[in-house]
Amino acid sequence: MHMRQKRDTPSKRVQFTALLVLVAATATIFGCRGEKPAAPAMASVTPATPVAPVAKVRTRQQAMEALMALPELKAWSSRIEKSSGGALRSALVEYDPQPRLIKGKRYFQLSFVENGSDAARRWESFLVPETGDDILVDDAATDKTLTLAQWRAATKPMERAGAN
């Protein structure tokens, strides 16, 4: 007759205790990650290097909204609609879908147009930056870009709207 030998197996209590010890050790080793590190013994004498804020990149839609917020374009839109009795509308069209690069900065290329049933007539072309607020005017006559201040001084765009 073959006798079966009884193996010494740890009891459930011993297994559970070993598991708890393992969990406690793991928690001790890895559990300190969320805690703040201890303060250094000596405060740093050199000031921290300032971090430049990350500029928010404007979408095409946001570029159009920024452009339509200009007082000149608001006045032009009103004039076009009123003088045509609603037959004409103003619109912004992207005259080149590729951003234009000027001094390392990317600009959306948008034109303000008078939009009729048979054609659209361009009034002015603008360059709206993906980051920043420096909207430029694309002067087709001189093939140069102007700042809004230069454009306003040179062309008096509010007079075109019938406003003084």
Describe the model:
The protein is built from five helices and five strands. The protein is of the alpha+beta class and 164 residues long. The chain has a domain of 101 residues: Nuclear Transport Factor 2, Chain: A, CATH 3.10.450. The chain has a five-stranded antiparallel β-sheet. A hairpin with a 4-residue loop joins strand 4 and strand 5. The relative contact order is 0.11.
CATH class of one domain: Alpha Beta
| Radius of gyration using CA atoms only | 34 Å
Low-confidence stretches: 18-34
Distance between the termini: 118 Å
CATH architecture label of one domain: Roll
Q: What's the tally of helices? A: 5
Helix vs. strand class: alpha+beta
Could you spell the SSE succession in H and E letters? HHHEEEEEHH
Q: In percent, how much strand structure appears in the residues?
A: 25-35%
- Overall pLDDT level: 79
Helix content: 25-40%
CATH topology of one domain: Nuclear Transport Factor 2, Chain: A
- Total strand count, please? 5
Major sheet description: 5 strands, antiparallel
Strand order of the largest sheet: 1-2-3-4-5
- Overall geometric form: elongated
